Amino acid sequence: MQLLKIVLVALVFIVNLMIAQPSWAGKDFTKGADYAEVTQALNQLLAAKDTPEQAGYTPEEFQQRLAQLQFQKNIIETAKKRAQCRNETGKTLAVYANKPKKSPTQLYYLAAGQITDDDWDCDGIYLPAGTQVVLSPNTPAQELTEAIAVKFVDGTQSVATVNPGTGAIALNVEPAKVFKIGESDWLLPALSQAEIDTQVPTPELID
């Protein structure tokens, strides 16, 4: 009887290993909405590679957009953990984050020097009007005339820093999307950086 119990326990353990994702396994983000959206956009772009001007692109713009989508696709395919935001700006950063199955995407506050916990998805960053920002390695710093939200794809490990020469916020990863008020269901309040600096950082973001 004892031997039978041992055999049954061993069988249950083996079956669990076969049908369940082990807790130590990496995340698979290729089943998410971001991956479906990026691959669809990439396929549509590639379909127009012989006549990019008919899709509204110059040859240079086509290659730039192609590189952007391929980069985003690679991030999602190789990511091992949820998207995180690191704040190296020296100021409080407003970030969009959600806790899967527990909390939808909302605006939270991340203190300087902190990184969001990998139990959360850091979906993007809020940048208030008046911010000097570099959104892409190929573009100069610009001063925002209105608040924007930048969105990253699943698995992105983003870092926001400040250029000591210009004072502009720079991102290590080009955002997948940039939203203005009314272009997304994300809340874009009219906050200044001074008002963001007075906000209490959200403690659960860095559990």
Give a quick precis of the structure:
With 207 residues, the chain is an alpha+beta fold.
Given as residue ranges, the uncertain stretches (5+ residues, pLDDT < 50) are 11-24
Using the CA coordinates, give the radius of gyration: 21 Å
Q: Helix-strand pattern, N to C? A: HHHEEEEEEEEEEH
The first-to-last residue Cα distance is: 46 Å
Largest sheet: 5 strands, mixed
Strand order of the largest sheet: 1-8-9-5-6
Q: Could you estimate the helical fraction of the residues in percent? A: 25-40%
The chain-level mean pLDDT equals 89
How many E-type strands? 10
Strand fraction equals 15-25%
Question: How many helices in DSSP terms?
Answer: 4
Shape: globular
Structural class: alpha+beta
Explain how this protein is built.
- With 207 residues, this protein is an alpha+beta fold.
- 28% of the residues lie in helices and 23% in strands.
- The protein is built from four helices and ten strands.
- It has helices at 2-19, 33-47, 59-78, 193-197; strands at residues 84-88, 93-99, 103-110, 121-127, 132-134, 142-143, 148-151, 157-162, 169-171, 177-179.
- The strands form two sheets. It has a five-stranded mixed sheet, with no helix packed on it. A five-stranded antiparallel sheet has the order 3-2-4-7-10.
- The chain is globular and about 50 Å long.
- It starts with a helix and ends in a 10-residue tail after the last helix.
- Residues 11-24 have low confidence and may be disordered.
What are the key terms here?
207 residues; alpha+beta; five-stranded mixed sheet; five-stranded antiparallel sheet
